[in-house]
Amino acid sequence: MTENSEKIDRLNDLTTFISTKTGVKGLVDAEITEVPSMFHVPSSILSNNRPSDISGLNLTVPIIDLGDRNTSSRNVVISKIKDAAENWGFFQVINHDVPLTVLEEIKESVRRFHEQDPVVKNQYLPTDNNKRFVYNNDFDLYHSSPLNWRDSFTCYIAPDPPNPEEIPLACRSAVIEYTKHVMELGAVLFQLLSEALGLDSETLKRIDCLKGLFMLCHYYPPCPQPDLTLGISKHTDNSFLTLLLQDQIGGLQVLHEDYWVDVPPVPGALVVNIGDFMQASPVDAFF
Fold it and tell me: Could you tell me which residue ranges the Fe2OG dioxygenase domain spans (predicted)?
């Protein structure tokens, strides 16, 4: 098969996939037994993404207890955040004041949205109407190669919050409640990061690092051939800060010192990722 014919076949498969408007969940509901080729990831990439034998290296993404930030241990917390940001770009936070019930409900609401009838979900497919809430299968289906095995929705929360009725009923209350707590936690983290930089605690907030909030929720249906594809390809986040909530299944990895390191889910924890904008900002003294 020539390269041109492969491109034509991929385009035909992609057009068929898009026309169904049922996403990856639709493939699973159709009880497919083989992953379509447009989702196949080259074996060289898959092998590179498998965790190396790092048992003797003691590589573990730092876990930081924010419960100590209002005590005499605050400087210790700041020191740990500085070290994690410098050396990892990632850390997990516990005792962050986001209620466990809120975390569980947002995870459940994401499943609830994606497991609705496609007719309901398709009201939120991308259009030219600049919707605040958008349901999609991949950000750029015609140019992403290979496709990721996931469905997603996005919601722009700040600085111009959506009207509640713009958010689907299946996840409306959970999105509103979760993002309220996330903004509060974000303010705390930017204070601590400012102090870790040796600056006034409000510095990062003053330069609008906290101004925007973009919510992205992925749904990974069971895959019949998980060794052939990925839920998310290797990437960095174009943000100041990303707060990531994992479910109990896991699968998240971060690249550290040329090793792929697993980030096992910690009950109630949130993963903090130092984003591209933070690293490129004028106050990137330790990144």
Answer: 211-287
Residue pair 220/230 in contact (Cβ under 8 Å)? The answer is no
Structural domain includes residue 83: yes
Alpha carbons 115 and 106: distance in angstroms, whole number: 14
Residue 213 lies in a domain: yes
The pTM for the full model equals: 0.89
**Structural contact between residues 81 and 64, judged by C-beta atoms closer than 8 angstroms:** yes
Query: Is beta strand 241-244 parallel, antiparallel or unpaired with respect to 253-256?
Result: unpaired
Which domain range does residue 73 map to?
3-49+61-280
| DSSP label of 264 | -
Count: domains in the chain: 1
Q: What would the pLDDT profile of 163-185 be if each residue is shown by its tens digit?
A: 999 999 999 999 999 999 999 99
Q: What is the pLDDT of residues 29-42, one digit of tens each?
A: 999 999 998 899 98
Least confident piece of the model among 77-86, 103-112, 153-162, 255-264? 255-264
In a domain, 20, yes or no: yes
Quick one: DSSP state of residue 107? H
Conformational region of residue 193, where left means phi above 0, alpha means psi within -120 to 50, and beta covers everything else: alpha
32-71 residue pLDDT tens: 999 998 899 988 877 665 555 555 567 899 999 999 887 7
98: amino acid identity, one letter: V
Do 13 and 223 touch, CB atoms closer than 8 A? no
